[in-house]
Amino acid sequence: VIWTNQRHTLLTMRDRRITDDVRIMVVRDHPGEWNLHIRDVEPSDQGQFNCQINTVPVKINKVNLFVLGEYYENDIFSI
């Protein structure tokens, strides 16, 4: 399982963070879940994120993040 952003930047692979952005992590509350968490969400984080499962055929789930309102430090957004 990999997560990428709209610029096709690799963010995570399995449960490991690949990006230098320490606000990003994968949380697995249950088996089979690969949730992308972004701490301290900022307006610049807005956009499309892709979760790719390397099966045959490859499965891709696209998620759009919209950042509305004020910026609050220490907020976590899970997709």
Q: Explain this structure to me?
A:
The protein has one domain: Immunoglobulin-like, CATH 2.60.40.10. It has no helices and eight strands. The chain has strands at residues 2-5, 10-13, 16-17, 24-27, 35-39, 47-53, 59-65, 76-78. InterPro entries: Ig-like_dom_sf, Ig-like_fold.
As residue ranges, the low-confidence spans are none
Shape type: globular
Order of helices and strands: EEEEEEEE
User: What would you give as the CATH superfamily?
Assistant: Immunoglobulins
Radius of gyration: 13 Å
Strand order of the largest sheet: 3-2-1-6-7
Number of DSSP strand runs: 8
The CATH first-level class comes to Mainly Beta
Strand content: over 45%
CATH topology: Immunoglobulin-like
Largest sheet: 5 strands, antiparallel
Number of helix segments? 0
How many separate domains make up the residues?
A: 1
CATH architecture: Sandwich
Mean pLDDT: 91
SS-based structural class?
Answer: mainly beta
- Quaternary state of the chains: single chain
Q: In which range does the helix fraction lie?
A: under 10%
Distance, first to last CA: 14 Å
